[in-house]
């Protein structure tokens, strides 16, 4: 479906959705009472034959149907017969294992193959369940419409695809039809229907589940479904419904449960007929961007028990109109447009067990009435602008509370160190609120915690020893960005269990000392940005296969020694960041065995030797940062297999090579390429221009020679901006030096960085006109080469340019007037060339008044230089007049700043590299609401300077 979400990770979310589909088929089925496994009832031969033929068409890898032999077909697995006639009434071939979609046993237990039409000979069949199998995208067979006695038909999650046959509309006795979730069929071939007209024939229908069936093209929308007066359950979740479901008169007033989540409605007005469904218990409208102009949509819906309005645009009046629905137990209003304070009427909803108000614009203090909701099990007010200090009194009545989410508010928690809360929480989310400065002692009483988030919670304390013990049972701990001291957790090494992953994030604290061991029962460990010393621990001897770890971040510490080889035993690692430490020795060859690696950062250590060619095995790698080491030699040719690479930083090493042609030819996904400060020599290969996604190219400070290629205008990302397939990186950051300032780029900004730096090489010839087509460029640095000719007149096309450095070349002629069209320019350097004539003025140029910008061009005149043009002779045909006038004496001084200063700063672009994936992958594990938050969350903290 084309889910249109407020947040970015639709596919992620989808994954989450599909892995948590409730098992919907617990529908009561009246006539099944007469169906039993009567082994003694003799089975009808014709039906037995039909079943055998049916079995013959199936692929049954795990041999689930091994009992389908012999005469007594009534005792076969999944079959129930009529107790007197022996006629088959029920065929239940639902996958018997729980739906873990990544579990091999589950997958193997799926039936496949094709469905034999012999099934129509089961003329009395009332119940057919083929759910949770995998029929690989085949169509729902039309002959099912001949099974006139069917009461129950469940084909959900069975991999059926394509157009639903309208023949199903002949099943006039059908009480329940589930065609939901065809996600196991190929995505392009999910179930769909062009016309829902056939549904009107199902006039006994009580339950209809079309979850994820593509109804985008269904012309009549809900009209046919509106013909079904007995309908009590309707699930149209993720159906791609586009047309507003307009109904002039609502027929299905007996509806008790309605799910319209995640559709594509073009009209954001909430359907007004909803308010006639006064008997609704469950209503799901999430992810639709709907609002209610009448402000009274829910006034009459007093029987509501479960209401999900998440990610819409309902406002505070809706919240008030809901307060009549006194039966509500579950209320999710996250991601709406609620402003002002939480209405105190919320206290009328005394049956509430789940209240979600996250991601709104609520402010003020939390009303006292809310704390009287004694049945609350889950309270989520995260990511609002709530204020106030919460004390023990607030929580005194919340004995049932299991989940408390306060993250992202201006709240503070002030409780005594002896507080014993009345609850036992499973989930604690208190990130970005004030919990400290002391480590919260009350945590010690919480024995059932599974998730703990106290990121950036102003805790400045040592981790108490009791917490180290408690922590062993917590699935996810995030205490990053506090000022925790001491030695971090002592990890107990024991084997990870199969379905359990543990995550521990302790980055950006003040932990010191050394690590005694690395944990084996943890899937994600982040200890980055601390003061840890000593060696990175070896895995314990005798540990054989320890596949648990998925991401390991030890970057920005003071680890010494070599990279332990047995890190390579973590064969499922996909993120490994050891950058910014004091590691030495070689890059271990065995890293090439980590076939799942997506991000490998070893930058800014003292690693030596060559880049091992085994790294070429890491074909999934998307980000490789080996910059800032002492690596020598050539690039291994095997690196051309890294076709998924998007960011490659090999800068600040001693590499000595030409720029291989395969970089342009094979690494076609690159958008970040940095080779600065090595010994690359030879010409800049034209093939680099094939990197159509490239947005950062930095080859500065090498020995490159020859001309600048004339094909840079083929790098379409720099010409036309974003690529259509826009990769979304989430909140990863690219640290960069821009105009001397340190800047953090977050998600959206990141897509805007475009820079080319070729400075400090031996490039000759003219500046190609083609560069002037790179209109997205923000930084262009060609300084310190031997470039000649004029500055192209079209330079003014580069309207986005903020930093332009052409200094220390041999450029001559006049400065083009168009330079004054560069409205974003804030750092310019044209010094030490042979430019002549008047300096253009106007617009942005007027703000660049530092004379050193133009220093060392003796033919230039006019502001900001001291020599005005009228006292100058016009330059002659032979070039600039070479006169040693007064102003020259100060040039030696300003040269340093003008020539080297900005050039150096720009040249360092991206020294610090990119933290791709880290966060997005980390959040992949979180429940969607939490991940959505981190994508929306705009972090404003500045990084401390990290130059050494
Ligand atoms: C749903 O169907 C419409 C047209 O019928 C199509 O354009 C769209 O891509 C389909 N969506 C999915 C997710 O298959
Ligand atoms: C149904 O049974 C009849 C009688 O045995 C047989 O002739 C016919 O082929 C069967 N139909 C199908 C579709 O298998
Ligand atoms: C309501 O249902 C009846 C029969 O079930 C049908 O005749 C009528 O057209 C329906 N009304 C609407 C507005 O669809
Ligand atoms: C909703 O109910 C009101 C009053 O019972 C009725 O007048 C109106 O036509 C109904 N609207 C729809 C769309 O069924
Ligand atoms: C959107 O739906 C509302 C309610 O059905 C209707 O009044 C309005 O005219 C619709 N707007 C558009 C642009 O179709």
From TrEMBL:
For the Disease resistance R13L4/SHOC-2-like LRR domain, which residue ranges apply?
549-701
Superkingdom of this protein's organism: Eukaryota
| The Leucine-rich repeat-containing N-terminal plant-type domain, residue ranges | 45-81
Q: According to Swiss-Prot or TrEMBL, what is its membrane topology?
A: Single-pass type I membrane protein
Please tell me where this protein is predominantly located.
membrane
**TM annotation in the entry:** 895-917
Q: Which organism is it from?
A: Coffea arabica (Arabian coffee)
On whether Iron-sulfur is a keyword of this UniProt record, the answer is: no
The leader peptide range reads 1-26
The protein's UniProt keywords, in alphabetical order, are: Cell membrane, Glycoprotein, Leucine-rich repeat, Membrane, Repeat, Signal, Transmembrane, Transmembrane helix
- This chain's protein is named Receptor-like protein EIX2
Q: Which SMART domains match?
A: LRR_TYP
Q: Where in the cell is it found?
A: Cell membrane
What family does the Swiss-Prot or TrEMBL record give for this protein?
Belongs to the RLP family.
């Amino acid at each position: 479906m084309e889910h249109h979400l407020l947040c970015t990770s639709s596919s992620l979310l989808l994954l989450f959705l599909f892995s948590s589909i409730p098992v919907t088929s617990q529908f009561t089925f009246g006539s099944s009472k007469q169906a039993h496994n009567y082994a003694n009832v003799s089975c009808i031969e014709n039906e037995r034959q039909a079943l055998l033929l049916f079995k013959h068409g199936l692929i049954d890898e795990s041999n689930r149907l091994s009992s389908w032999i012999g005469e007594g077909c009534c005792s076969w697995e999944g079959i129930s017969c009529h107790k007197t006639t022996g006629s088959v009434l029920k065929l239940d071939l639902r996958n018997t294992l729980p739906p873990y979609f990544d579990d091999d046993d589950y997958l193997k237990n799926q039936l496949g193959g094709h469905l034999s039409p012999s099934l129509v000979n089961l003329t009395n069949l009332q119940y057919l369940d083929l759910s949770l199998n995998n029929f690989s995208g085949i169509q729902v067979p039309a002959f099912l419409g001949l099974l006139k006695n069917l009461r129950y038909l469940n084909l959900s999650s069975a991999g059926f695809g394509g157009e639903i046959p309208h023949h199903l509309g002949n099943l006039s006795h059908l009480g329940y039809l589930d065609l939901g979730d065809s996600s196991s069929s190929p995505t392009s071939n999910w179930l769909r229907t062009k016309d829902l007209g056939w549904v009107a024939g199902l006039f006994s229908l009580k339950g209809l589940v079309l979850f994820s069936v593509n109804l985008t093209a269904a012309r009549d929308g809900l009209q046919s479904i509106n013909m079904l007066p007995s309908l009590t359950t309707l699930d149209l979740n993720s159906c791609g419904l586009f047309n507003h479901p307009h109904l002039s008169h609502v027929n299905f007033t007996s509806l008790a449960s309605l799910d319209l989540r995640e559709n594509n409605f073009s009209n954001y007005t909430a359907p007004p007929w909803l308010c006639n469904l006064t008997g609704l218990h469950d209503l799901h409208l999430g992810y639709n961007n709907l609002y209610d102009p009448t402000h009274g949509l829910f006034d009459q819906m007093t029987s509501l028990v479960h209401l999900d309005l998440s990610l819409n645009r309902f406002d505070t009046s809706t919240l008030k109109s809901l307060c009549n629905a006194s039966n509500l137990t579950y209320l999710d209003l996250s991601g709406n447009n609620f402003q002002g304070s939480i209405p105190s009427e919320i206290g009328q909803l005394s049956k509430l067990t789940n209240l979600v108000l996250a991601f709104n614009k609520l402010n003020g203090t939390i009303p006292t009435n809310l704390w009287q909701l004694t049945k609350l099990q889950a309270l989520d007010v995260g990511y609002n602008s709530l204020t106030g200090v919460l004390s023990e009194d607030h929580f005194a009545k919340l004995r049932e509370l299991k989940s408390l989410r306060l993250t992202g508010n201006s709240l503070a928690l002030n409780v005594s160190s002896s507080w014993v809360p009345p609850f036992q929480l499973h989930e604690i989310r208190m990130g970005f609120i004030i919990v400290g400065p002391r480590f919260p002692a009350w945590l010690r009483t919480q024995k059932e915690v599974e998730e703990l988030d106290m990121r950036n919670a102003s805790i400045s304390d040592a981790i108490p020893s009791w917490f180290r013990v408690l922590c062993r049972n917590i699935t996810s701990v995030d205490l990053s960005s506090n000022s925790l001291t001491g030695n971090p957790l002592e990890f107990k090494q024991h084997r990870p269990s199969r379905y359990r992953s543990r995550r521990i994030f302790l980055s950006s604290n003040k932990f010191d000392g050394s690590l005694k061991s690395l944990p084996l029962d943890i899937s994600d460990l982040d200890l980055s940005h601390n003061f840890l010393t000593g060696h990175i621990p070896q895995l314990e001897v005798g540990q054989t296969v320890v596949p648990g770890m998925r991401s390991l971040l030890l970057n920005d510490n003071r680890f010494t020694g070599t990279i332990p080889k047995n890190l390579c035993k973590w064969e499922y690692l996909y993120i490994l960041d050891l950058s910014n430490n004091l590691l030495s020795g070689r890059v271990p060859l065995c890293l090439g065995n980590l076939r799942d690696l997506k991000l490998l950062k070893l930058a800014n250590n003292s690693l030596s030797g060559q880049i091992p060619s085994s790294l070429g095995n890491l074909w999934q790698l998307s980000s490789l940062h080996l910059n800032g080491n002492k690596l020598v030699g050539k690039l291994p040719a095997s690196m051309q297999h890294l076709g998924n690479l998007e960011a490659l930083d090999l800068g600040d090493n001693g590499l000595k090579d030409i720029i291989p042609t395969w970089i342009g030819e094979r690494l076609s996904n690159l958008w970040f390429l940095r080779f600065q400060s090595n010994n690359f020599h030879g010409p800049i290969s034209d093939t680099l221009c094939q990197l159509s996604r490239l947005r950062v190219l930095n080859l500065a400070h090498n020995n490159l020679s020859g001309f600048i290629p004339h094909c840079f205008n083929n790098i379409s990302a720099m010409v036309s901006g974003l690529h259509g397939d826009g990769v979304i990186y989430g909140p990863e950051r690219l640290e960069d030096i821009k105009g001397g300032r340190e800047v953090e780029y977050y998600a959206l900004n990141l897509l805007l960085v475009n820079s080319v730096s070729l400075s400090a090489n031996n490039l000759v010839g003219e500046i190609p006109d083609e560069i002037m087509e790179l209109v997205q460029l923000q930084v262009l640095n060609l300084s310190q080469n031997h470039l000649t000719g004029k500055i192209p007149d079209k330079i003014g096309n580069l309207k986005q340019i903020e930093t332009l450095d052409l200094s220390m070349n041999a450029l001559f002629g006049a400065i083009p007037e168009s330079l004054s069209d560069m409205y974003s320019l804030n750092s310019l350097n044209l010094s030490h060339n042979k430019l002549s004539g008047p300096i253009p003025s106007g617009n942005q140029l007027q703000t660049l008044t530092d004379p050193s910008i133009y220093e060392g061009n003796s033919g230039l005149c006019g502001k900001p230089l001291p020599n005005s043009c009228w006292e100058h002779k016009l330059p002659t045909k032979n070039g600039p007049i070479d006169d040693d006038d007064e102003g020259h004496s100060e040039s030696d001084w300003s040269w340093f700043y003008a020539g080297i200063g900005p050039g150096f700063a720009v040249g360092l672009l991206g020294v610090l590299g990119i933290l791709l994936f880290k966060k997005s992958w980390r959040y992949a594990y979180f429940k969607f609401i939490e991940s959505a938050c981190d994508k929306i969350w705009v972090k404003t903290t500045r990084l401390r300077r990290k130059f050494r």
